[in-house]
UniProtKB/TrEMBL annotation, chains A, B:
Residues 2-56 form the HTH lacI-type domain. SUPFAM superfamilies: lambda repressor-like DNA-binding domains, Periplasmic binding protein-like I. PANTHER family: HTH-TYPE TRANSCRIPTIONAL REPRESSOR PURR-RELATED, LACI-RELATED TRANSCRIPTIONAL REPRESSOR. Pfam families: LacI, Peripla_BP_3. The lineage of its organism: Bacteria, Bacillati, Actinomycetota, Actinomycetes, Kitasatosporales. It comes from Streptomyces cavernicola. This is LacI family DNA-binding transcriptional regulator.
Amino acid sequence: MAGIKDVAAAAGVSVATVSRVLNAHPSVSEDARSRVLAAVDELGYRPNAVARSLRTAQTRTLGLIISDVMNPYFTELARSVEEEARALGYSVIIGNADESPKLQDDHVRTLLDRRIDGLLVSPTDGGSPQLLDAARAGTPTVFVDRWIPGVDVPVVRADGSAAVRDLVAHLHGLGHRRLAIIAGPAATTTGSERVDAFRAALGAYGLELPEEYVGQGDFQAESGRRVTEAFLALPEPPEVVFAADNLMALGALDAIRARGLRIPGDIALAAFDDIPWFVHTDPPVTAIAQPTRELGRAAVRALTAVIEGRRARSVTLPARLVVRRSCGEPGAPPGTAPPARPDQSPTPRPRPRSNP
Amino acid sequence: MAGIKDVAAAAGVSVATVSRVLNAHPSVSEDARSRVLAAVDELGYRPNAVARSLRTAQTRTLGLIISDVMNPYFTELARSVEEEARALGYSVIIGNADESPKLQDDHVRTLLDRRIDGLLVSPTDGGSPQLLDAARAGTPTVFVDRWIPGVDVPVVRADGSAAVRDLVAHLHGLGHRRLAIIAGPAATTTGSERVDAFRAALGAYGLELPEEYVGQGDFQAESGRRVTEAFLALPEPPEVVFAADNLMALGALDAIRARGLRIPGDIALAAFDDIPWFVHTDPPVTAIAQPTRELGRAAVRALTAVIEGRRARSVTLPARLVVRRSCGEPGAPPGTAPPARPDQSPTPRPRPRSNP
DNA sequence: GGGTTCCGTGGAATCGATTACACGGAGGAT
DNA sequence: ATCCTCCGTGTAATCGATTCCACGGAACCC
């Protein structure tokens, strides 16, 4: 493959001049520039990014570590991260930690060896050693979705508390009083925050969240099924099951169907994380939608800011409630599922965004 | 960050010796080795992969270009590719072509600039210029899932024809005679092959595949919906809709529901590509499952073989039919759907699962 | 007209590793 | 004892770019 020397020779200039042309350095004569460009074109020359990286000490590569690639939420996040990064001239190496701190550390190490310019992480746990080291050692790092308290790193995430309040209001308005939640791992921020928000929202309606209505899940479908089965076996089963992520909601759906119960007739179901599939289930699932695309973009922008030495602030974007049919139908159809449906209902709570 | 020179200094040896220790070169004294190792440990030294790549002309990085990351099939493929690659000491840079040849070329160019060791591609079309150039120029390349006829590159894919025959047998046994297919883009091999296999299988039962029973989709959900609506508007609508990929099946599901029809009572549905979600829909969807994990692993192994100069052969793995309930319940269930579920029901439709 | 400034350019150092080659010393063969 | 062969090690070249510095010549200023 042709190198910069070949181009220099072909154009009758030095390698320095070729480099200057390629990097749009001002002091190059028009004549030299055109000869270089012609040579580049003729030889089909493409600069070697590896050599460039060695010299400039930047790879224009970002590392993205997510906890579960098979989860549609993270897939979408990864997609938007890659898109935004590409727009900014960065490539992305994705590492799938599979909810394992060990694997996560493995990925951090590899990425650091490859001298990525920055690290985007949705941490699996409270702080694996490599990750903490990297962050403290000054590797540009940004947390996305989940974060680790006490680590001074910008966080890009969605705040679901308002949406959870809207959800509880919606459920309460439908007459539901016994609400249960399938929680995520307590070691993750998203795991605990969602339970807290739910409990707080219930409190505003004078409702309790008893211990037996808090099931411990692990963000995987199977745990949703298990927890839901336990709920249904209770002497007084809940009227609503709220799953703290989409996969657990799926498990819940299965468990409910396996019991021969109908949704929302016999029991209502709602989920945190909205995904395209929830439109296609029967019934469509009411969910709290995170602005996933925007999260990905904001995360990349924050990270590149840190990389370029600008100080980046944390970003918190609001999640919003998307009412479908899995919790029951109010007097006037509230849904927002399929494409263009006029949402304005004459009844109270025209758009679920306020808090009581 | 500490470099190899620092290690050499700390251990009182030359950089050559340090390098030899790190690369397990035989001729290093036990004494020197231990001193180097100690120094490495103390300084927390990690070799700079960029410098190493420049010198050795290999990056131990693979490029993976897929046509749609949001499609669960490709997500799973990407996951298994990354896993196998990691096991072999490679990192993976994923590019999402989004079914656009232009974007695909863009990714090829970037990856080549980064001097990846090999390219794994599921081509979006019949041959975008950059991709063809790369393959012909000798960049180690392997096609996965889809391929480009006439290009001499190993192909790792699943053969669905036997499974399609099984499916048609299954449908025929259930009494269905009017079978329609939602096809993928003709420019992709998977798009045309599946239609061909379907037509051939029908032929074996003396059935035709009339023109109006072949809908043109694009592997996206919306096209599945559109095509299915057209099918249902036909004077004589099909009894079965077979979608050539999972997303289009989803669209079909929607269209059928929107018409108020029941599956499989009013119309049957089957899909190519099995995904976890098909277990959770109502009813669970009969599908043709590709050995996705194995495809990913085989693709990586083939690619690394080419990289290391060994000659790699193409691999074709069989897909298999997974019978669920979206086509009707046969007298004796042939299927192999969920783990260990005694599916044999004496009476039809034992559990309340239909919708009014 | 002479000195200063600026511009375009090339030579060479540099990034951090790997590795060919040379070299000194130990051990074996004769 | 002499020579040859290895073995362990260090010196320096190398990979392909970027960039500091120096230099020659043109333009500009009094």
